[in-house]
Amino acid sequence: MTFVPPPLHQPPLFDLTLGELLHQTATKYPDQDAVVYVDRDYRLTWQQFDALTDDLAKGLMALGIEKGEKVAVWATNVPFWVALMFATAKMGAVLLTVNTAYKRNELKYLLTNSEAENIFIINGFRDSDYIEILYDLAPELRTMQRGAVRSDSFPHLKRVCFLGVEKHRGMYSIPEILGLARTVTDEDLHARQATFTCHDVVNMQYTSGTTGFPKGVMLSHHNILNNGYSIGQRQRFTNKDKLCIQVPLFHCFGCVLGVMACVNHGTTMVFTEVFNPVHSMMSIEQEKCTAIYGVPTMFIAMLEHKLFSKFDFSSLRTGIMAGAVCPIQTMRQVTEKMFMKEITSVYGLTESSPGMTQTDVTDPFHYRVEGVGRAFPHVEVKVADPETGKEVERGKQGELCCRGYNSMKGYYNNPEATAKCIDADGWLHSGDLGVMDEYGYVTITGRIKDMIIRGGENIYPREIEEFLYTMPGIADIQVAGVPSRKYGEEVGAFIILKKDAEMTPEEVKDFCRGQIAWHKIPKYIAFVEEFPLTTSGKVQKYKLRELAAKLFPEAMH
What we know:
By secondary structure, the chain is of the alpha/beta class.
Protein backbone atom coordinates (compact mmCIF):
# COMPACT_ATOMS: atom_id res chain seq x y z
CA MET A 1 0.00 0.00 0.00
CA THR A 2 1.38 3.43 -0.93
CA PHE A 3 2.10 5.79 1.94
CA VAL A 4 0.03 8.96 1.92
CA PRO A 5 1.09 11.32 4.71
CA PRO A 6 -1.60 12.79 6.94
CA PRO A 7 -2.38 16.50 6.65
CA LEU A 8 -0.14 18.63 8.82
CA HIS A 9 -1.40 19.85 12.19
CA GLN A 10 -1.87 23.68 11.96
CA PRO A 11 -2.41 25.13 15.44
CA PRO A 12 -2.68 28.92 15.63
CA LEU A 13 0.49 30.90 16.37
CA PHE A 14 0.93 32.17 19.94
CA ASP A 15 1.25 35.90 20.59
CA LEU A 16 3.05 35.51 23.91
CA THR A 17 6.35 36.68 25.35
CA LEU A 18 8.75 34.12 26.85
CA GLY A 19 7.85 35.35 30.34
CA GLU A 20 4.11 34.90 29.74
CA LEU A 21 4.67 31.40 28.40
CA LEU A 22 6.79 30.36 31.40
CA HIS A 23 4.18 31.70 33.80
CA GLN A 24 1.46 29.72 31.97
CA THR A 25 3.48 26.50 32.23
CA ALA A 26 4.28 27.13 35.91
CA THR A 27 0.56 27.66 36.61
CA LYS A 28 -0.35 24.39 34.81
CA TYR A 29 2.41 22.19 36.32
CA PRO A 30 3.59 24.03 39.46
CA ASP A 31 5.09 21.04 41.31
CA GLN A 32 6.64 19.20 38.40
CA ASP A 33 10.40 19.31 37.79
CA ALA A 34 11.45 22.02 35.35
CA VAL A 35 15.26 22.01 35.63
CA VAL A 36 17.42 19.07 36.75
CA TYR A 37 21.21 18.55 36.95
CA VAL A 38 21.99 14.97 37.92
CA ASP A 39 25.69 15.55 38.69
CA ARG A 40 25.01 18.13 41.46
CA ASP A 41 21.54 17.14 42.58
CA TYR A 42 20.10 20.50 41.45
CA ARG A 43 16.36 20.49 40.94
CA LEU A 44 13.71 23.22 40.49
CA THR A 45 9.97 22.84 39.92
CA TRP A 46 8.23 25.00 37.32
CA GLN A 47 6.90 27.23 40.09
CA GLN A 48 10.37 27.64 41.64
CA PHE A 49 11.94 28.31 38.25
CA ASP A 50 9.31 30.94 37.39
CA ALA A 51 9.87 32.67 40.78
CA LEU A 52 13.68 32.57 40.39
CA THR A 53 13.51 34.18 36.94
CA ASP A 54 11.15 36.89 38.29
CA ASP A 55 13.67 37.70 41.03
CA LEU A 56 16.58 37.69 38.61
CA ALA A 57 14.65 39.96 36.22
CA LYS A 58 14.10 42.44 39.08
CA GLY A 59 17.79 42.16 39.99
CA LEU A 60 18.77 43.08 36.42
CA MET A 61 16.45 46.10 36.60
CA ALA A 62 18.02 47.08 39.93
CA LEU A 63 21.44 47.06 38.20
CA GLY A 64 20.02 49.67 35.81
CA ILE A 65 19.67 47.45 32.72
CA GLU A 66 17.24 49.11 30.33
CA LYS A 67 14.81 47.67 27.80
CA GLY A 68 16.62 46.65 24.59
CA GLU A 69 20.09 46.44 26.20
CA LYS A 70 22.14 43.41 25.23
CA VAL A 71 23.12 40.99 27.97
CA ALA A 72 25.87 38.69 26.70
CA VAL A 73 26.32 35.31 28.35
CA TRP A 74 29.64 33.52 27.95
CA ALA A 75 29.21 30.25 29.78
CA THR A 76 28.68 26.52 29.52
CA ASN A 77 25.27 25.04 30.42
CA VAL A 78 25.48 26.08 34.09
CA PRO A 79 22.21 26.27 36.09
CA PHE A 80 21.92 30.05 35.94
CA TRP A 81 22.28 30.17 32.14
CA VAL A 82 18.69 29.15 31.47
CA ALA A 83 17.47 31.35 34.36
CA LEU A 84 19.20 34.34 32.73
CA MET A 85 17.52 33.49 29.41
CA PHE A 86 14.06 34.01 30.95
CA ALA A 87 15.07 36.82 33.32
CA THR A 88 16.30 38.98 30.41
CA ALA A 89 13.14 38.12 28.45
CA LYS A 90 10.94 39.14 31.39
CA MET A 91 12.46 42.60 31.77
CA GLY A 92 12.90 43.47 28.09
CA ALA A 93 16.63 42.94 27.53
CA VAL A 94 18.18 40.95 24.66
CA LEU A 95 20.12 37.81 25.55
CA LEU A 96 23.29 37.65 23.47
CA THR A 97 24.70 34.13 23.38
CA VAL A 98 28.48 33.73 23.17
CA ASN A 99 30.19 30.64 21.81
CA THR A 100 32.08 28.90 24.63
CA ALA A 101 35.01 28.15 22.29
CA TYR A 102 35.71 31.82 21.61
CA LYS A 103 39.15 33.13 22.41
CA ARG A 104 40.35 36.67 23.03
CA ASN A 105 40.02 38.06 19.47
CA GLU A 106 36.63 36.50 18.88
CA LEU A 107 35.23 37.91 22.12
CA LYS A 108 36.67 41.31 21.25
CA TYR A 109 34.97 41.13 17.83
CA LEU A 110 31.62 40.10 19.32
CA LEU A 111 31.56 42.74 22.09
CA THR A 112 32.51 45.42 19.56
CA ASN A 113 30.16 44.29 16.77
CA SER A 114 27.15 43.76 19.06
CA GLU A 115 27.71 46.94 21.13
CA ALA A 116 26.87 44.80 24.18
CA GLU A 117 26.22 46.80 27.34
CA ASN A 118 26.45 43.82 29.74
CA ILE A 119 28.21 40.47 29.96
CA PHE A 120 27.84 37.49 32.30
CA ILE A 121 30.75 35.03 32.47
CA ILE A 122 31.96 31.91 34.27
CA ASN A 123 35.57 31.08 35.22
CA GLY A 124 36.33 29.51 31.88
CA PHE A 125 36.07 26.50 29.61
CA ARG A 126 38.74 23.97 28.63
CA ASP A 127 41.98 25.93 28.23
CA SER A 128 40.35 29.38 28.22
CA ASP A 129 40.31 31.52 31.37
CA TYR A 130 37.36 33.84 30.68
CA ILE A 131 38.11 36.12 33.63
CA GLU A 132 41.71 36.69 32.57
CA ILE A 133 40.64 37.28 28.96
CA LEU A 134 38.14 39.92 30.09
CA TYR A 135 40.65 41.63 32.44
CA ASP A 136 43.13 41.62 29.57
CA LEU A 137 40.63 43.19 27.14
CA ALA A 138 39.24 45.67 29.70
CA PRO A 139 41.92 46.23 32.41
CA GLU A 140 39.76 49.03 33.84
CA LEU A 141 37.59 46.32 35.41
CA ARG A 142 40.19 45.73 38.12
CA THR A 143 39.95 49.26 39.46
CA MET A 144 36.53 50.61 38.49
CA GLN A 145 33.41 50.56 40.54
CA ARG A 146 31.03 47.74 39.68
CA GLY A 147 28.28 48.75 37.34
CA ALA A 148 30.16 51.80 36.18
CA VAL A 149 32.58 50.30 33.72
CA ARG A 150 34.18 52.79 31.37
CA SER A 151 36.29 50.88 28.89
CA ASP A 152 38.27 52.56 26.12
CA SER A 153 38.13 49.38 24.06
CA PHE A 154 34.37 48.80 24.56
CA PRO A 155 32.63 52.16 24.94
CA HIS A 156 29.19 50.49 25.16
CA LEU A 157 30.11 48.12 28.00
CA LYS A 158 28.58 49.14 31.34
CA ARG A 159 28.45 46.05 33.53
CA VAL A 160 30.26 42.75 33.98
CA CYS A 161 28.69 40.02 36.11
CA PHE A 162 29.69 36.56 37.25
CA LEU A 163 27.19 33.79 36.43
CA GLY A 164 27.63 32.06 39.78
CA VAL A 165 28.27 32.73 43.48
CA GLU A 166 31.97 33.67 43.40
CA LYS A 167 33.12 37.27 43.82
CA HIS A 168 35.52 38.89 41.34
CA ARG A 169 36.81 42.46 41.11
CA GLY A 170 34.53 44.73 39.12
CA MET A 171 31.78 42.09 38.82
CA TYR A 172 28.41 41.42 40.46
CA SER A 173 27.68 37.82 41.48
CA ILE A 174 24.28 36.11 41.18
CA PRO A 175 23.56 36.21 44.98
CA GLU A 176 24.26 39.97 44.97
CA ILE A 177 21.95 40.53 42.00
CA LEU A 178 19.20 38.46 43.64
CA GLY A 179 19.72 40.53 46.82
CA LEU A 180 19.24 43.76 44.84
CA ALA A 181 15.97 42.39 43.45
CA ARG A 182 14.23 43.41 46.67
CA THR A 183 14.55 47.06 45.68
CA VAL A 184 12.30 46.49 42.63
CA THR A 185 8.57 45.81 43.10
CA ASP A 186 6.26 43.51 41.12
CA GLU A 187 4.58 46.69 39.84
CA ASP A 188 7.93 47.96 38.53
CA LEU A 189 8.43 44.69 36.65
CA HIS A 190 4.88 44.75 35.21
CA ALA A 191 5.35 48.39 34.14
CA ARG A 192 8.51 47.39 32.25
CA GLN A 193 6.67 44.43 30.63
CA ALA A 194 4.00 46.78 29.33
CA THR A 195 6.66 48.49 27.17
CA PHE A 196 7.46 45.54 24.87
CA THR A 197 5.62 42.86 22.89
CA CYS A 198 6.28 39.38 21.59
CA HIS A 199 7.56 40.88 18.31
CA ASP A 200 10.52 42.57 20.02
CA VAL A 201 14.00 41.03 19.79
CA VAL A 202 14.71 38.74 22.76
CA ASN A 203 17.69 36.73 21.57
CA MET A 204 20.74 37.46 19.48
CA GLN A 205 23.04 34.71 18.29
CA TYR A 206 26.16 34.98 16.23
CA THR A 207 26.24 32.52 13.36
CA SER A 208 28.77 29.77 13.84
CA GLY A 209 31.19 31.29 11.44
CA THR A 210 31.69 28.27 9.20
CA THR A 211 32.13 30.96 6.53
CA GLY A 212 33.30 34.56 6.93
CA PHE A 213 32.86 36.71 10.03
CA PRO A 214 30.00 35.82 12.38
CA LYS A 215 26.89 38.00 12.14
CA GLY A 216 24.42 38.75 14.94
CA VAL A 217 21.07 37.09 14.16
CA MET A 218 18.18 38.93 15.86
CA LEU A 219 15.29 36.68 16.95
CA SER A 220 12.01 37.76 18.60
CA HIS A 221 9.89 36.11 21.32
CA HIS A 222 7.43 35.25 18.52
CA ASN A 223 10.15 33.60 16.43
CA ILE A 224 11.57 31.22 19.00
CA LEU A 225 8.46 30.56 21.11
CA ASN A 226 6.41 29.31 18.17
CA ASN A 227 9.31 27.41 16.68
CA GLY A 228 9.88 25.68 20.03
CA TYR A 229 6.19 24.73 20.21
CA SER A 230 6.26 23.05 16.77
CA ILE A 231 9.51 21.23 17.53
CA GLY A 232 8.05 19.76 20.73
CA GLN A 233 4.77 18.94 18.99
CA ARG A 234 6.51 16.88 16.27
CA GLN A 235 8.04 14.79 19.08
CA ARG A 236 4.69 14.64 20.95
CA PHE A 237 6.20 16.22 24.07
CA THR A 238 3.99 16.41 27.16
CA ASN A 239 4.55 17.15 30.84
CA LYS A 240 5.35 13.44 31.27
CA ASP A 241 8.50 13.75 29.13
CA LYS A 242 12.04 14.47 30.26
CA LEU A 243 14.60 15.77 27.80
CA CYS A 244 18.36 15.34 28.27
CA ILE A 245 19.92 18.57 26.92
CA GLN A 246 23.61 17.89 26.28
CA VAL A 247 23.91 20.36 23.39
CA PRO A 248 25.19 23.89 24.15
CA LEU A 249 22.68 26.51 25.24
CA PHE A 250 24.49 29.28 23.35
CA HIS A 251 23.32 27.59 20.15
CA CYS A 252 19.74 27.36 18.85
CA PHE A 253 19.90 23.59 19.33
CA GLY A 254 20.06 24.09 23.09
CA CYS A 255 18.03 27.23 23.72
CA VAL A 256 15.24 26.80 21.12
CA LEU A 257 14.98 23.14 20.11
CA GLY A 258 15.72 22.25 23.73
CA VAL A 259 14.53 24.88 26.21
CA MET A 260 11.68 26.42 24.18
CA ALA A 261 10.27 23.03 23.17
CA CYS A 262 10.23 21.99 26.85
CA VAL A 263 8.72 25.20 28.26
CA ASN A 264 5.94 25.07 25.65
CA HIS A 265 4.94 21.53 26.66
CA GLY A 266 5.84 21.36 30.37
CA THR A 267 8.64 18.87 29.62
CA THR A 268 11.42 18.53 32.24
CA MET A 269 14.87 19.83 31.18
CA VAL A 270 17.72 17.56 32.30
CA PHE A 271 20.98 19.42 31.60
CA THR A 272 24.61 18.44 31.37
CA GLU A 273 27.01 21.35 31.88
CA VAL A 274 29.34 20.27 29.09
CA PHE A 275 29.07 17.29 26.78
CA ASN A 276 30.43 14.15 28.34
CA PRO A 277 29.08 10.80 27.08
CA VAL A 278 29.13 9.23 30.58
CA HIS A 279 27.29 12.20 32.18
CA SER A 280 24.67 12.03 29.44
CA MET A 281 24.17 8.29 29.80
CA MET A 282 24.02 8.64 33.59
CA SER A 283 21.40 11.42 33.30
CA ILE A 284 19.25 9.29 30.97
CA GLU A 285 19.35 6.30 33.30
CA GLN A 286 18.90 8.17 36.58
CA GLU A 287 16.08 10.50 35.50
CA LYS A 288 14.52 7.99 33.07
CA CYS A 289 14.71 10.54 30.27
CA THR A 290 12.31 9.97 27.39
CA ALA A 291 14.24 12.09 24.90
CA ILE A 292 17.77 13.27 24.14
CA TYR A 293 19.28 15.66 21.61
CA GLY A 294 22.65 15.59 19.96
CA VAL A 295 24.71 16.14 16.86
CA PRO A 296 25.86 12.91 15.15
CA THR A 297 29.31 13.06 16.79
CA MET A 298 27.68 13.01 20.28
CA PHE A 299 25.59 9.95 19.50
CA ILE A 300 28.64 8.23 17.98
CA ALA A 301 30.66 9.05 21.16
CA MET A 302 27.99 7.36 23.31
CA LEU A 303 27.47 4.35 21.02
CA GLU A 304 31.23 3.72 20.75
CA HIS A 305 31.91 4.28 24.48
CA LYS A 306 33.25 1.24 26.35
CA LEU A 307 30.63 1.76 29.10
CA PHE A 308 27.67 2.05 26.68
CA SER A 309 26.34 -1.43 27.47
CA LYS A 310 26.36 -0.71 31.23
CA PHE A 311 23.59 1.92 31.00
CA ASP A 312 19.85 1.49 30.70
CA PHE A 313 18.31 3.43 27.78
CA SER A 314 14.92 1.74 27.82
CA SER A 315 13.11 4.92 28.99
CA LEU A 316 14.06 6.74 25.75
CA ARG A 317 11.42 7.28 23.08
CA THR A 318 12.29 10.25 20.92
CA GLY A 319 14.77 13.07 20.43
CA ILE A 320 16.54 14.96 17.70
CA MET A 321 19.70 14.30 15.74
CA ALA A 322 20.63 17.45 13.87
CA GLY A 323 23.25 20.20 13.52
CA ALA A 324 25.16 18.30 10.87
CA VAL A 325 24.33 15.75 8.21
CA CYS A 326 23.04 12.68 10.04
CA PRO A 327 24.60 9.41 8.87
CA ILE A 328 21.91 6.86 8.14
CA GLN A 329 23.94 4.15 9.90
CA THR A 330 24.12 6.19 13.11
CA MET A 331 20.36 6.89 12.96
CA ARG A 332 19.69 3.14 12.67
CA GLN A 333 21.98 2.35 15.62
CA VAL A 334 20.36 5.00 17.81
CA THR A 335 16.93 3.64 16.94
CA GLU A 336 17.90 0.07 17.76
CA LYS A 337 20.42 0.32 20.60
CA MET A 338 19.06 3.40 22.41
CA PHE A 339 15.35 2.54 21.96
CA MET A 340 14.71 5.83 20.16
CA LYS A 341 12.10 4.43 17.81
CA GLU A 342 10.56 7.89 17.43
CA ILE A 343 13.76 9.86 16.78
CA THR A 344 13.31 12.91 14.56
CA SER A 345 15.52 15.19 12.45
CA VAL A 346 15.21 18.96 12.26
CA TYR A 347 16.59 21.13 9.53
CA GLY A 348 17.12 24.85 9.66
CA LEU A 349 19.60 27.58 10.49
CA THR A 350 19.93 30.23 13.18
CA GLU A 351 18.34 32.72 10.75
CA SER A 352 15.14 30.57 10.65
CA SER A 353 14.75 30.48 14.48
CA PRO A 354 16.10 27.76 13.72
CA GLY A 355 13.62 25.11 12.49
CA MET A 356 12.35 25.08 8.93
CA THR A 357 11.41 21.39 8.55
CA GLN A 358 11.22 18.38 10.86
CA THR A 359 10.22 14.75 10.63
CA ASP A 360 7.28 13.58 12.73
CA VAL A 361 7.33 10.61 15.11
CA THR A 362 4.60 9.02 12.92
CA ASP A 363 6.59 9.31 9.67
CA PRO A 364 7.73 6.02 8.11
CA PHE A 365 11.22 5.00 9.24
CA HIS A 366 12.95 5.65 5.92
CA TYR A 367 11.68 9.25 5.93
CA ARG A 368 13.05 9.75 9.43
CA VAL A 369 16.51 8.36 8.73
CA GLU A 370 17.01 9.69 5.22
CA GLY A 371 15.39 13.11 5.28
CA VAL A 372 14.53 16.12 7.42
CA GLY A 373 10.75 16.05 7.17
CA ARG A 374 8.17 18.59 6.08
CA ALA A 375 7.73 22.30 6.66
CA PHE A 376 6.54 23.49 10.06
CA PRO A 377 3.02 24.93 10.38
CA HIS A 378 2.84 28.53 9.10
CA VAL A 379 6.19 28.11 7.29
CA GLU A 380 6.49 27.88 3.50
CA VAL A 381 9.45 25.94 2.14
CA LYS A 382 10.54 25.84 -1.50
CA VAL A 383 13.44 24.42 -3.46
CA ALA A 384 14.72 27.10 -5.81
CA ASP A 385 17.23 27.36 -8.62
CA PRO A 386 20.27 29.02 -6.94
CA GLU A 387 20.82 31.23 -10.01
CA THR A 388 17.28 32.45 -10.73
CA GLY A 389 15.48 31.96 -7.38
CA LYS A 390 12.61 30.27 -9.25
CA GLU A 391 11.05 27.16 -7.71
CA VAL A 392 12.23 23.90 -9.34
CA GLU A 393 10.11 20.82 -10.03
CA ARG A 394 9.57 18.31 -7.23
CA GLY A 395 12.42 15.79 -7.16
CA LYS A 396 14.92 18.31 -8.63
CA GLN A 397 17.82 19.67 -6.59
CA GLY A 398 18.03 23.35 -5.66
CA GLU A 399 18.55 25.77 -2.77
CA LEU A 400 16.23 25.44 0.23
CA CYS A 401 14.38 28.63 1.07
CA CYS A 402 11.67 29.39 3.61
CA ARG A 403 9.20 32.16 4.41
CA GLY A 404 7.09 32.64 7.51
CA TYR A 405 6.99 33.72 11.16
CA ASN A 406 10.34 31.99 11.73
CA SER A 407 12.44 34.37 9.60
CA MET A 408 14.84 36.40 11.74
CA LYS A 409 14.33 40.11 12.29
CA GLY A 410 17.65 40.61 10.48
CA TYR A 411 21.39 40.76 11.17
CA TYR A 412 22.37 43.33 13.81
CA ASN A 413 23.48 46.60 12.20
CA ASN A 414 23.96 44.87 8.86
CA PRO A 415 21.14 45.65 6.41
CA GLU A 416 23.29 44.65 3.39
CA ALA A 417 23.84 41.10 4.69
CA THR A 418 20.17 40.89 5.72
CA ALA A 419 19.07 41.81 2.18
CA LYS A 420 21.38 39.12 0.76
CA CYS A 421 19.85 36.48 3.04
CA ILE A 422 16.16 37.50 2.82
CA ASP A 423 15.04 38.50 -0.68
CA ALA A 424 12.47 41.13 -1.67
CA ASP A 425 9.65 38.54 -1.58
CA GLY A 426 10.51 37.54 2.00
CA TRP A 427 12.24 34.24 1.16
CA LEU A 428 15.13 33.35 3.47
CA HIS A 429 17.93 31.67 1.49
CA SER A 430 19.68 28.85 3.34
CA GLY A 431 22.74 28.24 1.16
CA ASP A 432 21.93 24.52 1.45
CA LEU A 433 20.97 22.18 -1.36
CA GLY A 434 18.03 19.84 -1.11
CA VAL A 435 15.28 17.97 -2.88
CA MET A 436 11.54 17.93 -2.07
CA ASP A 437 9.34 14.96 -2.95
CA GLU A 438 5.70 15.00 -4.04
CA TYR A 439 4.48 14.95 -0.42
CA GLY A 440 6.67 17.88 0.68
CA TYR A 441 9.38 15.81 2.42
CA VAL A 442 12.83 17.36 2.16
CA THR A 443 16.21 15.64 1.85
CA ILE A 444 19.43 17.65 2.25
CA THR A 445 21.90 16.91 -0.51
CA GLY A 446 24.74 19.29 0.35
CA ARG A 447 25.75 22.88 0.82
CA ILE A 448 26.23 25.13 -2.15
CA LYS A 449 29.72 25.95 -0.91
CA ASP A 450 30.48 22.31 -0.02
CA MET A 451 30.01 21.17 -3.56
CA ILE A 452 33.16 19.75 -5.17
CA ILE A 453 33.60 20.73 -8.82
CA ARG A 454 36.04 18.28 -10.45
CA GLY A 455 36.86 19.19 -13.99
CA GLY A 456 33.36 20.59 -14.48
CA GLU A 457 31.62 17.64 -12.76
CA ASN A 458 29.50 18.66 -9.76
CA ILE A 459 30.08 16.22 -6.91
CA TYR A 460 28.07 16.32 -3.68
CA PRO A 461 30.05 15.09 -0.66
CA ARG A 462 26.92 13.77 1.11
CA GLU A 463 26.44 11.06 -1.52
CA ILE A 464 29.97 9.68 -1.07
CA GLU A 465 29.79 9.98 2.74
CA GLU A 466 26.59 7.95 2.89
CA PHE A 467 28.09 5.25 0.71
CA LEU A 468 31.31 4.97 2.74
CA TYR A 469 29.40 4.81 6.03
CA THR A 470 28.44 1.29 4.93
CA MET A 471 32.09 0.16 4.89
CA PRO A 472 32.93 -1.93 7.98
CA GLY A 473 35.48 -0.27 10.24
CA ILE A 474 34.48 3.35 9.46
CA ALA A 475 33.07 5.24 12.47
CA ASP A 476 32.70 8.66 10.84
CA ILE A 477 33.63 10.28 7.54
CA GLN A 478 33.74 13.68 5.90
CA VAL A 479 34.36 14.34 2.23
CA ALA A 480 35.83 17.64 1.07
CA GLY A 481 37.50 19.08 -2.00
CA VAL A 482 41.31 18.86 -2.36
CA PRO A 483 42.71 21.78 -4.40
CA SER A 484 44.02 20.33 -7.67
CA ARG A 485 46.06 21.95 -10.46
CA LYS A 486 44.67 19.61 -13.11
CA TYR A 487 40.98 19.39 -12.15
CA GLY A 488 40.42 22.42 -9.91
CA GLU A 489 39.37 20.03 -7.11
CA GLU A 490 39.72 16.33 -6.38
CA VAL A 491 37.69 14.26 -3.93
CA GLY A 492 39.29 13.90 -0.50
CA ALA A 493 38.00 11.65 2.31
CA PHE A 494 38.79 12.16 5.99
CA ILE A 495 38.05 9.01 7.93
CA ILE A 496 37.73 8.27 11.67
CA LEU A 497 38.13 4.53 12.19
CA LYS A 498 36.29 2.42 14.73
CA LYS A 499 38.36 1.26 17.69
CA ASP A 500 40.83 -1.47 16.71
CA ALA A 501 39.90 -1.21 13.00
CA GLU A 502 42.69 -1.10 10.43
CA MET A 503 42.40 0.16 6.90
CA THR A 504 44.48 1.41 3.99
CA PRO A 505 43.58 4.08 1.43
CA GLU A 506 43.69 1.40 -1.27
CA GLU A 507 41.07 -0.71 0.56
CA VAL A 508 38.76 2.30 0.67
CA LYS A 509 39.15 2.83 -3.08
CA ASP A 510 38.60 -0.89 -3.76
CA PHE A 511 35.36 -0.74 -1.72
CA CYS A 512 34.14 2.11 -3.95
CA ARG A 513 35.11 0.64 -7.31
CA GLY A 514 32.12 -0.42 -9.23
CA GLN A 515 29.79 0.95 -6.59
CA ILE A 516 29.97 4.68 -7.24
CA ALA A 517 31.01 6.65 -10.32
CA TRP A 518 34.79 6.66 -10.81
CA HIS A 519 35.05 10.45 -10.57
CA LYS A 520 33.42 10.27 -7.11
CA ILE A 521 35.93 7.77 -5.69
CA PRO A 522 38.18 9.62 -3.22
CA LYS A 523 41.57 10.16 -4.78
CA TYR A 524 43.07 11.37 -1.49
CA ILE A 525 42.36 9.64 1.82
CA ALA A 526 43.48 10.60 5.32
CA PHE A 527 42.77 8.75 8.58
CA VAL A 528 42.22 11.26 11.37
CA GLU A 529 41.36 11.22 15.09
CA GLU A 530 38.76 14.03 14.89
CA PHE A 531 37.22 16.65 12.60
CA PRO A 532 37.50 20.41 13.04
CA LEU A 533 34.14 21.33 14.61
CA THR A 534 32.32 24.48 15.58
CA THR A 535 31.36 24.29 19.27
CA SER A 536 27.82 23.44 18.25
CA GLY A 537 29.14 20.28 16.58
CA LYS A 538 29.08 21.27 12.89
CA VAL A 539 32.01 20.08 10.83
CA GLN A 540 33.98 23.01 9.41
CA LYS A 541 34.38 21.86 5.81
CA TYR A 542 36.48 24.88 4.87
CA LYS A 543 39.06 23.80 7.49
CA LEU A 544 39.08 20.29 6.01
CA ARG A 545 39.77 21.86 2.61
CA GLU A 546 42.65 23.83 4.16
CA LEU A 547 43.96 20.63 5.80
CA ALA A 548 43.65 18.76 2.49
CA ALA A 549 45.84 21.36 0.75
CA LYS A 550 48.58 20.79 3.39
CA LEU A 551 48.28 16.98 3.47
CA PHE A 552 48.18 16.48 -0.28
CA PRO A 553 50.37 19.15 -1.90
CA GLU A 554 51.03 16.71 -4.76
CA ALA A 555 47.54 17.46 -6.08
CA MET A 556 48.81 20.88 -7.16
CA HIS A 557 51.75 19.47 -9.18
